[in-house]
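Hi R.,

As promised on Friday, here is the backbone we talked about, encoded as structure tokens. Could you run it through your design pipeline when you get a chance and send me back a sequence?
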């Protein structure tokens, strides 16, 4: 058994995904041009906040770490890293984007004629929560995961689909829209987050308490090699395989396949609880602050109405 750093044998392109970082840099440049120089073409535009700049850059860095750094390569080798990647990508990065992207820009995007009819359906709380958790559960069925890991195109498409579904799922909680949409109350947001955790639990439980390894991609040498082709250039992969005795994840870790699988399930569940704890804290105190502000506004309006009424009667004294 070698250390995790042994993944360096697969070369620079497999470990650091230079094309992916170029793509993220392109997205970042286009985004900042859109919300600064070109923002005047978008209704309701405003100057970008410093917090939004920082959070967007942080989200892109996190995106590169989980999908472009050696963590992505390790996610195809060791199941634990796969679940770490899932948790950070869909339960951390996506919610951050709601605070990194101005609400007027999100409103503009989801109001496009070719997006709005679909978005109005898929962002409904019940549909959104079922859609993401259903896709997440289906993705982690052994037959589905093993199949997708053998095709770079299908795996990428399903990853994008999960990302969009995650955005739709978190929209009812974190959107700051100015559009005339029915919003969840603070209490319903708390229940909503709790239900997401409940629906994620069966998949994690199945993975944690399984009595045998479920995924050929992480156990069968042939399937594992096919999965490695998703992120390692074929020439490099052939060269490494001919020069070493690598036959699977055991070359990089001393965990058995079952231990790795169970560890992955635990990582997903623990990170889920941590992320959801922060979300519940934010939603609860934002709700209480909003309720307090509404009470103050109501009191102020009542006082103003009383003063006007008194001034009216004073005219006839």
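Update: got your reply. Pasting your designed sequence below so it's all in one thread:
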């Amino acid at each position: 058994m070698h250390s995790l750093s042994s993944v360096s044998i697969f070369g620079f392109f497999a470990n650091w995904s230079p094309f992916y970082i170029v793509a993220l840099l392109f997205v970042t440049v286009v985004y900042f041009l859109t919300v600064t120089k070109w923002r005047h073409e978008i209704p309701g535009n405003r100057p970008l906040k410093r917090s939004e700049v920082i959070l967007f850059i942080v989200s892109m860095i996190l995106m590169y770490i989980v999908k472009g750094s050696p963590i992505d390569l390790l996610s195809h080798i060791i199941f634990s890293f796969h679940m770490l990647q899932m948790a950070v990508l869909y339960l951390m990065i996506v919610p951050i984007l709601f605070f990194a992207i101005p609400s007027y820009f999100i409103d503009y995007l989801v109001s496009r004629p070719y997006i709005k009819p679909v978005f109005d359906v898929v962002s409904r709380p019940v549909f959104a929560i079922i859609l993401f958790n259903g896709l997440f559960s289906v993705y982690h069925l052994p037959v589905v995961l093993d199949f997708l890991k053998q095709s770079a195109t299908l795996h990428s498409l399903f990853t994008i689909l999960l990302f969009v579904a995650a955005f739709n799922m978190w929209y009812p909680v974190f959107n700051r829209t100015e559009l005339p949409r029915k919003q969840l109350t603070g209490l319903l947001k708390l229940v909503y987050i709790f239900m997401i955790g409940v629906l994620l639990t069966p998949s994690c439980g199945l993975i944690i308490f399984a009595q045998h390894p479920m995924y050929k991609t992480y156990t069968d040498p042939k399937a594992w090699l096919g999965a490695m082709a998703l992120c390692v250039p074929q020439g490099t992969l052939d060269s490494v395989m001919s020069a070493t005795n690598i036959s699977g994840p055991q070359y990089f870790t001393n965990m058995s396949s079952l231990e790795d699988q169970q560890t992955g399930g635990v990582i997903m569940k623990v990170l889920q609880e941590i992320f959801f704890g922060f979300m519940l804290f934010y939603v609860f105190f934002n709700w209480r602050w909003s309720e307090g502000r509404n009470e103050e506004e109501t009191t102020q309006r009542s006082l103003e109405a009383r003063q006007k009424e008194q001034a009216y009667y004073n005219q006839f004294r």
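One thing I noticed while checking it: The chain has 14 helices and no strands.

Thanks again,
M.
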